[in-house]
């Protein structure tokens, strides 16, 4: 890195919120949004709402998928149910994600955080091609961290806790991004039980054993119980790579600690994810270049043979500019809008408040 870039502003961090429906993703986004606004000086984030089906977002999104696709129209047009409609809407939006990225990059110098709120149902984002494309596109552009939102009051049962952690684990291995476990709703249920279980698998196993259904009628541990016991050993390794914070999106508790974890995640991204990404890129570029060289060599060989056989042929085989096909490339009528950048098509404009331009010397011709 040279001196000019090291003195310029740090790149913003993208925070992708992921979690089960109702875990509180949107409320969390709203909470961190208001926290960033309340800083001194304020640091308003750049927010993307990727949930096409939400009727009300508690925050002001800069880019809202609902401005681009109407998921109810998509359902009608493609004969889909709600989940198919949401997924298809997200797919359609993803085809325009280069525009979104362009808008984000334009703001990269002025914002510190870019926040993505994902659709309510977790699998729509985590198990779809679009989710992967969006995640990879953002992560290859700016430092990115996954905030995995957990409904703490609903994960107090050891079996539920474990399945939630396994899901988190699958997302970590899929995205390979820095990962923060956010135990939400601590105003209802403190998250210390979860930290205890994560730090010491024996505590988890003890909780498991004391739960009803841990033993069968003969007093032997049930199959489920033994399975979860062994899985807790596997997860122990996974927990070591994670940061966990407890927050209440309702009261704002723990949000400061969350942002401290985000700073740690930025370093992790720079030290671990970025070098890996660059290595993958270099490999891909090299294999592309090899393929190009190979076909170029073959082309040159073919041309040489051709010229030997038919010396005048090349003259007749030239490109004719008259024949140029000037079809515009069809970009459809879908365009991404940044709500914070002036009016957009379809926006309601209060004409009663529009000013007259006094300085425009217009001379209307008088009748007669
Ligand atoms: N008590 C409490 N409720 C919360 C908290 N965060 C979210 N909720 C509630 O959880 C429900 C689901 O939240 P929402 O943000 O829509 O979840 P999403 O589907 O993950 O986006 C709403 O009724 C929220 O009011 C919290 O920290 N404490
Ligand atoms: Mg939501």
Automatic annotation (TrEMBL):
Q: Which UniProt keywords apply?
A: Cytoplasm, GTP-binding, Hydrolase, Nucleotide-binding, Phosphoprotein
* Cellular compartments annotated: Cytoplasm; Nucleus
Q: Which Pfam families match?
A: ATP_bind_1
Its Enzyme Commission number? Answer: 3.6.5.-
- Record's compositionally biased regions (Acidic residues): 320-333
Classification via InterPro entries: Gpn, Gpn1/Npa3/XAB1, P-loop_NTPase
Q: Does the keyword tRNA processing apply?
A: no
State the top-level EC class. Answer: hydrolase
CDD domains, from UniProt?
GPN1
* GO CC, any one term: nucleus
A GO molecular function assigned to this protein is: GTP binding
Transmembrane stretches, start-end: none
| UniProt region (Disordered), positions on chain | 305-368
Gene3D superfamilies given in the database record: P-loop containing nucleotide triphosphate hydrolases
Report the sequence similarity comment from the record.
Belongs to the GPN-loop GTPase family.
Q: How does it assemble?
A: Binds to RNA polymerase II.
- What the protein does? Small GTPase required for proper nuclear import of RNA polymerase II (RNAPII). May act at an RNAP assembly step prior to nuclear import.
Name of the molecule in the record: GPN-loop GTPase
């Amino acid at each position: 890195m040279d001196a000019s870039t090291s003195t310029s502003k740090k790149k913003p961090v993208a925070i992708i919120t992921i979690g089960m429906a109702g875990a509180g993703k949107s409320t969390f986004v709203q909470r961190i949004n208001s926290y960033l606004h309340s800083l001194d000086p304020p640091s308003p984030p750049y927010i993307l709402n990727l949930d096409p089906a939400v009727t009300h977002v508690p925050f002001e999104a800069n880019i809202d998928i609902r401005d681009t696709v109407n998921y109810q129209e998509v359902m009608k047009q493609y004969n889909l149910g709600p989940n198919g409609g949401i997924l298809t809407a997200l797919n359609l939006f993803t085809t325009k994600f280069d525009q979104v990225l362009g808008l984000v990059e334009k703001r990269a110098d002025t914002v510190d955080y870019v926040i993505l709120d994902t659709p309510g149902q977790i699998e729509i984002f985590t198990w779809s091609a679009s989710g992967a494309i969006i995640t990879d596109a953002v992560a290859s552009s700016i430092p990115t961290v996954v905030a995995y939102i957990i409904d703490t009051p609903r994960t107090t049962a050891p079996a539920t806790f474990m399945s939630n952690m396994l899901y988190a684990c699958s997302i970590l291995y899929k995205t390979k991004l820095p990962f923060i476990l956010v135990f939400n709703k601590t105003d209802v249920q403190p998250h210390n039980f979860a930290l205890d279980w994560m730090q010491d698998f024996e505590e988890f196993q003890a909780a498991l054993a004391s739960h009803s259904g841990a033993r069968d009628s003969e007093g032997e541990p049930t199959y489920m119980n033994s399975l979860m016991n062994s899985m807790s050993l596997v997860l122990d390794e996974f927990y070591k790579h994670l940061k966990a914070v407890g927050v209440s999106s309702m009261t704002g508790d723990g949000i400061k600690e969350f942002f401290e974890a985000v700073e740690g995640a930025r370093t992790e991204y720079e030290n671990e994810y970025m070098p890996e990404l660059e290595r993958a890129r270099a490999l891909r570029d090299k294999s592309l270049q090899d393929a190009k060289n190979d076909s170029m060599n073959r082309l040159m060989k073919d041309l040489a043979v051709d010229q030997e056989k038919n010396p005048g042929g090349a003259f007749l085989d030239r490109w004719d500019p008259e024949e140029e096909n000037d079809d515009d490339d069809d970009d459809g009528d879908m365009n991404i809008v940044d709500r914070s950048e002036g009016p957009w098509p379809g926006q309601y404009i209060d004409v009663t408040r529009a000013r007259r331009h006094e300085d425009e010397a217009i001379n209307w011709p008088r009748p007669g």
